[in-house]
Specification:
The protein is mainly α. The protein has 7 helices and no strands. α2 (about 20-30) runs antiparallel to α4 and α5 (about 80-100) runs antiparallel to α6. The longest helix is centred in the C-terminal third of the chain and has 26 residues, at about 105-130.
């Protein structure tokens, strides 16, 4: 990988991580209104995942812990693809629970639509991080396998 490309990927990881580190820490230590906001989304998820805990506060704190841990790992470059996928999986229900602008009116709806859009953009960045290097690794694996067959 070229030095410039590697530097850009490192900068991208480091700049993506803080929102998850700070938000995760906040949800873990002080879930507050997040618990109530998550309630209807968690209820909907439970229809498909009935083994999901009924303790909404625990789930909000666990999600915060996941974001704190995976965000820190992402910033430090520890398993960045796995960290990005964990954050992406965590971001979807967080976004649906916290920024359901379609259920709001006026200024609240506009503000939450902006936050929703920002989260979707963050999701896109996480997916780019998760996919980085995948094709190069697959090509190396295929070349190694092909060389063993000859």
């Amino acid at each position: 990988m070229a030095l410039g490309s590697s530097l850009l990927q490192t900068a991208g990881r480091v700049l993506t991580a803080p929102i998850f580190i700070t938000g995760g820490y906040s949800a873990l230590t002080n879930p507050g209104g997040r618990v109530q906001a998550a309630g209807s989304t968690l209820d909907a998820i439970r229809e498909y995942v009935p083994i999901l805990s009924e303790d909404d506060e625990f789930l909000v704190r666990a999600n915060g812990g996941l974001q704190l841990l995976a965000g820190t790992a992402l910033a430090l470059g520890i398993k960045p693809r796995a960290s990005a996928l964990a954050l992406a999986g965590s971001l979807v229900p967080t976004t649906l629970a916290g920024h359901a602008f379609w259920e709001m009116d006026g200024a609240d709806a506009a503000a939450h639509k902006t936050h929703f859009s920002k989260n979707v953009a963050a999701l896109g960045g996480l997916l780019l991080i998760a996919g980085a290097g995948a094709s190069k690794k697959a090509a190396k694996k295929a070349a190694k396998k092909a060389s063993k067959q000859n």
